[in-house]
Design brief:
- The longest helix is centred in the middle third of the chain and has 54 residues, at about 10-65.
- The chain has three helices and no strands.
- It is mostly helical.
- It is elongated, with a radius of gyration of 29 Å.
- Helix 1 packs across helix 2 (about 10-65).
- The protein has one domain (about 1-80).
Length: about 100
């Protein structure tokens, strides 16, 4: 309210109304942005989950048949079975 009085030279009641209008306008924008962000996160989450399930089905089919389903690379599917275990010497911390 004080910036409105100082910058616009209005009285206290007009300044209060103006200040409330500015805050409502800014908060409405903030709420809209927040809502859009939440919707975007939900959509991305659903898409990510669907893609993960598709990949799992492809890995399963590759494990059962030994052939990569259409659109998938056999090496990529094979890498799902390869663990990357790095062992370290407990005394020195160096790899063997």
């Amino acid at each position: 309210m004080i910036p409105v009085v100082a910058l616009e030279g209005t009285g206290p009641f007009r300044a209060l109304q103006r200040s409330a209008a500015v805050v409502k306008a800014r908060w409405a924008l903030g709420v809209a942005v927040l809502a859009a962000t939440v919707v975007a996160v939900i959509v991305v989450s659903f898409i990510s989950s669907a893609l993960s399930q598709i990949f799992r089905v492809a890995v399963y089919q590759y494990a059962v048949t030994g052939q990569a389903p259409g659109g998938f690379d056999g090496q990529t599917l094979q890498s799902a079975f390869e663990g990357r275990v790095t062992r370290y010497d407990p005394v020195t911390g160096d790899p063997p």
